Amino acid sequence: MIALAIIVVIFVLVVLGRAIRVVPQARAGVVERLGRYHKTLTPGLNLLVPFIDRLRPLLDLREQVVSFPPQPVITEDNLVVSIDTVVYFQITDARAATYEIANYLVAVEQLTTTTLRNVVGGLNLEGALTSRDNINGQLRVVLDEATGKWGIRVNRVELKSIEPPVSIQGAMEQQMRAERDRRAQILTAEGTKQAAILQAEGARQSDILRAEGEAQAQVTRAKGEAEAITTVFNAIHAGNPDGPLLAYQYLQTLPKIAEGDSNTLWIVPSELTEALKGVGRAFGPGGAGQTAAP
Prior knowledge:
Blueprint: H1 2-19, E1 20-23, E2 27-33, E3 36-41, E4 44-47, E5 53-55, E6 59-60, E7 64-74, E8 80-91, H2 94-99, H3 104-120, H4 125-130, H5 132-147, E9 152-163, H6 166-238, H7 243-258, H8 271-283, H9 285-292
Helix pairs in contact: 3-5, 7-8, 8-9
């Protein structure tokens, strides 16, 4: 009796263990009843019929990241490049992922390789190196369309690296070095040109300012001389001078008119003879006697 009781307890425990299934969050399980698809278990506590229902391995419903090994791809200009790809996908239908494809990881890898060769085969090396976003978009569209019936959604495809042949890499480095040298020479020439332009502009502005300063100084000097002459003229007329005195002052002013670097040519006015006559009469024998008589 004790042995029978132990057997019954063990049987009950086995039955309960096979009947109760706890599915974690973001997991899904496919249940087969007598070899046929029965249902898909959702996260939480689930009950099965022991010895009739069979639970297949749980599937991860989270987004998965798979990095595929480098694949040799021939470009349009007959160069073999090695390309690493990374695929981000997610299982959306556990039943389709179980029954529509035998191994979805291998299928995604092979489909990615063939699609990559088709896309990159229509581009040259430079186009393949500079068109990663375009290649990624084309790969994602093709993969998402092909894997839809497998219950898989491809969210993103990235080219991790594109490695051209070693000889091509050397040529590209030389080209890049030559391009950098050319740009450096252009920048140096532009800097020299700009410096020359700025120096010329500075010299021109300096000459303009110097000329303006000299012109302003001459104008100011002329105004001062004019005011001085006006003041003297007003003072002389205010004193009511006679003819001989005016003639004498006129003769004293003539040398001052001739002063200055710009006065290389000056015209003797017609009044000079009258002034000389006035001076002669004022300081001559007759004029002196007349002056001394009183």
